Amino acid sequence: MRTLWETLGKGPLRDIALVCMAVGVIGLSYGAIAVTSGFPWWFPVLMGALVLAASSEFLFVGIIAAGGSPIAALLAGLLVNARHLPFGLAVPDVLGRGWRRLLGTHLMNDETVVFAIAQEGLARKRAAYWACGLGILACWPVGAALGALLGSVVRDTDALGLDAMFPAVILALILPAMKDRALRRTALAGSVIALALTAFLPAGLPVLVALAALPLFRVKSLEGAAR
Amino acid sequence: MSGPFPLLPTLAAMFALAAGTFLLRLSGPALRAKVTFPKQVEKLLEVSAVVLLAALTATAALTEGDGFAGAARAIGVLVGGVLAWRRAPFLVVVLAAAGAAALLRLAGIP
Protein backbone atom coordinates (compact mmCIF):
# COMPACT_ATOMS: atom_id res chain seq x y z
CA MET A 1 0.00 0.00 0.00
CA ARG A 2 1.31 3.44 -0.89
CA THR A 3 1.80 5.95 1.86
CA LEU A 4 -0.46 8.94 2.30
CA TRP A 5 2.50 11.16 1.43
CA GLU A 6 3.06 9.47 -1.93
CA THR A 7 -0.62 9.33 -2.83
CA LEU A 8 -1.56 12.89 -1.88
CA GLY A 9 1.63 14.88 -2.29
CA LYS A 10 2.83 17.82 -0.28
CA GLY A 11 0.18 20.43 -1.17
CA PRO A 12 -3.00 18.62 -0.08
CA LEU A 13 -1.28 17.22 3.02
CA ARG A 14 -0.27 20.74 4.05
CA ASP A 15 -3.87 21.92 3.55
CA ILE A 16 -5.13 19.01 5.64
CA ALA A 17 -2.59 19.75 8.39
CA LEU A 18 -3.74 23.36 8.44
CA VAL A 19 -7.37 22.37 8.83
CA CYS A 20 -6.50 19.90 11.60
CA MET A 21 -4.58 22.65 13.41
CA ALA A 22 -7.56 24.99 13.07
CA VAL A 23 -9.81 22.24 14.44
CA GLY A 24 -7.39 21.90 17.39
CA VAL A 25 -7.59 25.63 18.12
CA ILE A 26 -11.39 25.53 17.98
CA GLY A 27 -11.05 22.56 20.37
CA LEU A 28 -9.30 24.94 22.77
CA SER A 29 -12.39 27.12 22.98
CA TYR A 30 -14.64 24.05 23.21
CA GLY A 31 -12.70 22.65 26.19
CA ALA A 32 -12.56 26.07 27.84
CA ILE A 33 -16.30 26.70 27.41
CA ALA A 34 -17.08 23.24 28.81
CA VAL A 35 -15.04 23.64 32.02
CA THR A 36 -16.17 27.20 32.65
CA SER A 37 -19.75 25.89 32.26
CA GLY A 38 -19.11 23.44 35.12
CA PHE A 39 -18.11 20.27 33.26
CA PRO A 40 -15.19 18.21 34.62
CA TRP A 41 -12.05 18.57 32.44
CA TRP A 42 -12.27 15.04 31.03
CA PHE A 43 -15.84 15.43 29.76
CA PRO A 44 -15.14 17.49 26.60
CA VAL A 45 -12.07 15.32 25.89
CA LEU A 46 -14.01 12.05 26.09
CA MET A 47 -16.95 13.51 24.19
CA GLY A 48 -14.59 14.93 21.58
CA ALA A 49 -13.07 11.51 20.89
CA LEU A 50 -16.36 9.56 21.00
CA VAL A 51 -18.76 11.91 19.20
CA LEU A 52 -16.16 13.64 16.99
CA ALA A 53 -18.61 16.18 15.56
CA ALA A 54 -17.84 19.69 16.78
CA SER A 55 -21.10 21.57 16.27
CA SER A 56 -23.18 18.91 18.04
CA GLU A 57 -20.77 18.96 20.99
CA PHE A 58 -20.89 22.76 21.33
CA LEU A 59 -24.68 22.54 21.24
CA PHE A 60 -24.79 19.68 23.79
CA VAL A 61 -22.55 21.56 26.24
CA GLY A 62 -24.49 24.79 25.68
CA ILE A 63 -27.88 23.21 26.38
CA ILE A 64 -26.66 21.48 29.57
CA ALA A 65 -24.92 24.67 30.75
CA ALA A 66 -28.12 26.65 30.19
CA GLY A 67 -29.98 24.23 32.49
CA GLY A 68 -31.54 22.11 29.75
CA SER A 69 -32.20 18.39 30.27
CA PRO A 70 -29.74 15.71 29.07
CA ILE A 71 -32.52 14.33 26.84
CA ALA A 72 -32.96 17.71 25.13
CA ALA A 73 -29.19 17.97 24.65
CA LEU A 74 -29.08 14.43 23.21
CA LEU A 75 -31.94 15.04 20.75
CA ALA A 76 -30.50 18.37 19.60
CA GLY A 77 -27.08 16.76 19.10
CA LEU A 78 -28.56 13.89 17.07
CA LEU A 79 -30.51 16.33 14.90
CA VAL A 80 -27.35 18.35 14.17
CA ASN A 81 -25.53 15.13 13.26
CA ALA A 82 -28.31 13.76 11.02
CA ARG A 83 -26.46 15.11 7.94
CA HIS A 84 -23.95 12.27 8.38
CA LEU A 85 -26.54 9.90 6.89
CA PRO A 86 -26.60 11.60 3.47
CA PHE A 87 -22.82 12.11 3.79
CA GLY A 88 -22.44 8.34 4.12
CA LEU A 89 -24.60 7.79 1.04
CA ALA A 90 -22.30 10.08 -0.94
CA VAL A 91 -18.85 8.75 0.09
CA PRO A 92 -19.11 5.02 0.89
CA ASP A 93 -15.99 3.99 -1.07
CA VAL A 94 -13.41 5.82 1.03
CA LEU A 95 -14.15 4.08 4.33
CA GLY A 96 -11.89 1.02 3.94
CA ARG A 97 -12.62 -2.65 4.69
CA GLY A 98 -12.84 -4.97 7.70
CA TRP A 99 -12.04 -3.47 11.12
CA ARG A 100 -10.71 -0.33 9.43
CA ARG A 101 -14.19 0.35 8.17
CA LEU A 102 -15.45 0.90 11.72
CA LEU A 103 -12.79 3.54 12.33
CA GLY A 104 -13.33 4.99 8.85
CA THR A 105 -17.04 5.33 9.61
CA HIS A 106 -16.26 7.11 12.89
CA LEU A 107 -14.00 9.58 11.03
CA MET A 108 -16.86 10.82 8.82
CA ASN A 109 -17.41 14.55 9.33
CA ASP A 110 -17.73 17.81 7.38
CA GLU A 111 -14.00 18.23 6.84
CA THR A 112 -13.18 14.64 5.84
CA VAL A 113 -16.14 14.50 3.43
CA VAL A 114 -15.27 17.82 1.79
CA PHE A 115 -11.58 16.87 1.40
CA ALA A 116 -12.61 13.54 -0.17
CA ILE A 117 -14.95 15.34 -2.58
CA ALA A 118 -12.25 17.88 -3.51
CA GLN A 119 -9.77 15.17 -4.61
CA GLU A 120 -9.78 13.42 -8.00
CA GLY A 121 -9.68 9.62 -8.18
CA LEU A 122 -10.57 7.02 -5.55
CA ALA A 123 -7.01 6.50 -4.17
CA ARG A 124 -6.55 10.22 -3.56
CA LYS A 125 -10.08 10.61 -2.17
CA ARG A 126 -9.43 7.78 0.28
CA ALA A 127 -6.02 9.13 1.30
CA ALA A 128 -7.39 12.65 1.88
CA TYR A 129 -10.32 11.29 3.88
CA TRP A 130 -8.10 9.23 6.17
CA ALA A 131 -5.34 11.80 6.62
CA CYS A 132 -7.87 14.47 7.56
CA GLY A 133 -9.92 12.10 9.73
CA LEU A 134 -6.97 10.79 11.75
CA GLY A 135 -5.61 14.31 12.12
CA ILE A 136 -8.92 15.55 13.50
CA LEU A 137 -9.27 12.51 15.77
CA ALA A 138 -5.94 13.57 17.33
CA CYS A 139 -6.29 17.37 17.27
CA TRP A 140 -9.90 17.80 18.43
CA PRO A 141 -9.68 15.95 21.79
CA VAL A 142 -6.14 17.25 22.45
CA GLY A 143 -7.32 20.80 21.76
CA ALA A 144 -10.28 20.22 24.11
CA ALA A 145 -7.91 18.94 26.84
CA LEU A 146 -5.62 21.96 26.52
CA GLY A 147 -8.61 24.31 26.49
CA ALA A 148 -10.01 22.62 29.61
CA LEU A 149 -6.66 23.08 31.40
CA LEU A 150 -6.25 26.70 30.34
CA GLY A 151 -9.90 27.44 31.14
CA SER A 152 -11.21 30.94 30.69
CA VAL A 153 -7.87 32.22 29.32
CA VAL A 154 -8.71 30.90 25.85
CA ARG A 155 -12.47 31.13 26.03
CA ASP A 156 -12.89 33.96 23.55
CA THR A 157 -11.41 32.60 20.32
CA ASP A 158 -13.87 34.80 18.39
CA ALA A 159 -11.46 37.72 18.94
CA LEU A 160 -9.00 35.82 16.71
CA GLY A 161 -11.64 35.38 14.01
CA LEU A 162 -11.51 31.60 14.33
CA ASP A 163 -15.27 31.32 13.81
CA ALA A 164 -14.73 32.58 10.23
CA MET A 165 -12.23 29.79 9.55
CA PHE A 166 -14.59 26.80 9.41
CA PRO A 167 -17.04 28.24 6.83
CA ALA A 168 -14.09 29.57 4.77
CA VAL A 169 -12.45 26.11 4.74
CA ILE A 170 -15.60 24.35 3.53
CA LEU A 171 -16.31 27.12 1.00
CA ALA A 172 -12.79 26.95 -0.47
CA LEU A 173 -13.06 23.17 -0.84
CA ILE A 174 -16.49 23.07 -2.52
CA LEU A 175 -15.76 25.97 -4.92
CA PRO A 176 -14.20 23.76 -7.65
CA ALA A 177 -17.38 21.63 -7.76
CA MET A 178 -19.38 24.83 -8.32
CA LYS A 179 -18.08 25.10 -11.89
CA ASP A 180 -20.98 22.82 -12.83
CA ARG A 181 -23.83 25.25 -13.48
CA ALA A 182 -26.69 22.94 -12.42
CA LEU A 183 -24.83 22.02 -9.23
CA ARG A 184 -24.13 25.67 -8.46
CA ARG A 185 -27.80 26.62 -8.81
CA THR A 186 -28.89 23.70 -6.67
CA ALA A 187 -26.34 24.47 -3.93
CA LEU A 188 -27.26 28.17 -3.91
CA ALA A 189 -30.98 27.39 -3.72
CA GLY A 190 -30.30 24.93 -0.88
CA SER A 191 -28.29 27.55 1.00
CA VAL A 192 -31.06 30.13 0.63
CA ILE A 193 -33.61 27.60 1.93
CA ALA A 194 -31.39 26.80 4.95
CA LEU A 195 -30.79 30.47 5.74
CA ALA A 196 -34.49 31.34 5.45
CA LEU A 197 -35.43 28.55 7.86
CA THR A 198 -32.70 29.08 10.47
CA ALA A 199 -34.83 31.46 12.54
CA PHE A 200 -37.74 28.99 12.67
CA LEU A 201 -36.27 25.49 12.97
CA PRO A 202 -33.99 23.88 15.59
CA ALA A 203 -30.26 23.72 14.73
CA GLY A 204 -29.34 21.06 12.17
CA LEU A 205 -32.73 20.87 10.49
CA PRO A 206 -32.31 23.85 8.08
CA VAL A 207 -29.20 22.21 6.55
CA LEU A 208 -31.14 18.97 5.99
CA VAL A 209 -34.12 20.80 4.46
CA ALA A 210 -31.64 22.35 1.97
CA LEU A 211 -31.86 18.95 0.21
CA ALA A 212 -35.33 20.06 -0.94
CA ALA A 213 -33.40 21.94 -3.67
CA LEU A 214 -32.19 18.64 -5.20
CA PRO A 215 -35.03 18.41 -7.78
CA LEU A 216 -33.51 21.54 -9.40
CA PHE A 217 -30.41 19.54 -10.25
CA ARG A 218 -32.44 16.60 -11.45
CA VAL A 219 -34.58 18.67 -13.78
CA LYS A 220 -31.49 20.36 -15.20
CA SER A 221 -29.53 17.17 -15.75
CA LEU A 222 -32.51 15.42 -17.34
CA GLU A 223 -32.92 18.35 -19.71
CA GLY A 224 -29.25 17.96 -20.55
CA ALA A 225 -29.70 14.25 -21.23
CA ALA A 226 -32.70 14.86 -23.49
CA ARG A 227 -30.82 17.33 -25.64
CA MET B 1 -15.08 20.03 40.00
CA SER B 2 -18.68 19.12 39.37
CA GLY B 3 -21.26 21.37 37.81
CA PRO B 4 -24.71 22.48 38.88
CA PHE B 5 -26.19 19.73 36.69
CA PRO B 6 -26.49 15.95 37.32
CA LEU B 7 -23.32 14.42 35.87
CA LEU B 8 -24.47 10.80 35.44
CA PRO B 9 -27.54 11.47 33.26
CA THR B 10 -25.45 13.94 31.25
CA LEU B 11 -22.76 11.31 30.79
CA ALA B 12 -25.40 8.77 29.71
CA ALA B 13 -26.80 11.28 27.19
CA MET B 14 -23.27 11.86 25.86
CA PHE B 15 -22.73 8.12 25.32
CA ALA B 16 -26.12 7.92 23.61
CA LEU B 17 -25.14 10.83 21.35
CA ALA B 18 -21.88 9.06 20.47
CA ALA B 19 -23.73 5.80 19.68
CA GLY B 20 -26.48 7.56 17.74
CA THR B 21 -24.00 9.59 15.73
CA PHE B 22 -22.07 6.42 14.87
CA LEU B 23 -25.31 4.78 13.67
CA LEU B 24 -26.06 7.84 11.52
CA ARG B 25 -22.56 7.58 10.03
CA LEU B 26 -22.99 3.84 9.51
CA SER B 27 -26.43 3.82 7.91
CA GLY B 28 -25.48 5.62 4.68
CA PRO B 29 -22.70 3.19 3.64
CA ALA B 30 -24.76 0.21 4.90
CA LEU B 31 -27.64 1.24 2.67
CA ARG B 32 -25.30 1.69 -0.30
CA ALA B 33 -23.90 -1.83 0.26
CA LYS B 34 -27.39 -3.39 0.18
CA VAL B 35 -29.07 -1.43 -2.58
CA THR B 36 -27.63 -0.73 -6.02
CA PHE B 37 -28.77 2.66 -7.15
CA PRO B 38 -29.13 3.67 -10.80
CA LYS B 39 -26.33 5.92 -12.13
CA GLN B 40 -28.52 8.99 -12.00
CA VAL B 41 -29.44 8.48 -8.35
CA GLU B 42 -25.78 7.91 -7.52
CA LYS B 43 -24.92 11.24 -9.11
CA LEU B 44 -27.72 12.84 -7.12
CA LEU B 45 -26.30 11.40 -3.87
CA GLU B 46 -22.94 12.99 -4.62
CA VAL B 47 -24.64 16.28 -5.39
CA SER B 48 -26.55 16.11 -2.12
CA ALA B 49 -23.28 16.09 -0.12
CA VAL B 50 -22.19 19.30 -1.88
CA VAL B 51 -25.62 20.87 -1.29
CA LEU B 52 -25.42 19.97 2.43
CA LEU B 53 -21.90 21.42 2.68
CA ALA B 54 -22.97 24.61 0.87
CA ALA B 55 -25.95 25.05 3.20
CA LEU B 56 -23.67 24.37 6.16
CA THR B 57 -21.24 27.03 4.94
CA ALA B 58 -24.03 29.56 4.50
CA THR B 59 -25.55 28.97 7.94
CA ALA B 60 -22.17 28.78 9.70
CA ALA B 61 -21.01 31.99 8.01
CA LEU B 62 -24.12 34.06 8.56
CA THR B 63 -26.06 32.75 11.56
CA GLU B 64 -25.52 32.12 15.24
CA GLY B 65 -28.43 30.53 17.09
CA ASP B 66 -31.60 32.00 15.57
CA GLY B 67 -30.12 35.27 14.34
CA PHE B 68 -27.40 37.00 12.32
CA ALA B 69 -23.85 36.10 13.35
CA GLY B 70 -22.55 39.63 12.82
CA ALA B 71 -20.75 41.41 10.00
CA ALA B 72 -17.20 40.48 11.07
CA ARG B 73 -17.60 36.73 10.52
CA ALA B 74 -19.66 37.18 7.33
CA ILE B 75 -17.08 39.54 5.77
CA GLY B 76 -14.22 37.30 6.92
CA VAL B 77 -15.77 34.30 5.13
CA LEU B 78 -16.47 36.47 2.08
CA VAL B 79 -12.82 37.56 1.94
CA GLY B 80 -11.77 33.89 2.14
CA GLY B 81 -14.29 32.97 -0.55
CA VAL B 82 -13.09 35.65 -2.99
CA LEU B 83 -9.45 34.65 -2.43
CA ALA B 84 -10.31 30.96 -3.01
CA TRP B 85 -12.17 31.93 -6.20
CA ARG B 86 -9.06 33.83 -7.37
CA ARG B 87 -7.11 30.61 -6.70
CA ALA B 88 -5.11 31.91 -3.74
CA PRO B 89 -3.30 29.19 -1.76
CA PHE B 90 -5.45 27.45 0.84
CA LEU B 91 -3.30 28.75 3.72
CA VAL B 92 -3.85 32.35 2.55
CA VAL B 93 -7.60 31.77 2.22
CA VAL B 94 -8.00 30.43 5.74
CA LEU B 95 -5.71 32.93 7.47
CA ALA B 96 -7.24 35.87 5.56
CA ALA B 97 -10.75 34.83 6.61
CA ALA B 98 -9.75 34.65 10.28
CA GLY B 99 -7.58 37.78 10.05
CA ALA B 100 -10.29 39.89 8.42
CA ALA B 101 -12.84 38.87 11.05
CA ALA B 102 -10.35 39.53 13.87
CA LEU B 103 -9.43 42.99 12.51
CA LEU B 104 -13.08 43.98 12.08
CA ARG B 105 -13.75 42.96 15.70
CA LEU B 106 -10.71 44.92 16.81
CA ALA B 107 -12.29 47.91 15.04
CA GLY B 108 -15.46 47.38 17.08
CA ILE B 109 -17.60 45.63 14.44
CA PRO B 110 -19.25 42.59 16.07
Automatic annotation (TrEMBL), chain A:
GO cellular component, one term: plasma membrane
Superkingdom in the source lineage: Bacteria
InterPro entries given in the database record: Brnchd-chn_aa_trnsp_permease
Transmembrane segments: 16-43, 58-80, 127-153, 159-178, 190-217
Membrane found in the keyword field: yes
Pfam families tied to this protein: AzlC (PF03591)
Membrane topology: Multi-pass membrane protein
Location in or out of the cell: Cell membrane
Keywords recorded for this protein, A-Z: Cell membrane, Membrane, Transmembrane, Transmembrane helix, Transport
One biological process term in Gene Ontology: L-valine transmembrane transport
PANTHER family found in the cross-reference section: INNER MEMBRANE PROTEIN YGAZ
UniProt similarity note: Belongs to the AzlC family.
The name this protein goes by in its record: Branched-chain amino acid permease
Lineage: Bacteria, Bacillati, Actinomycetota, Actinomycetes, Kitasatosporales
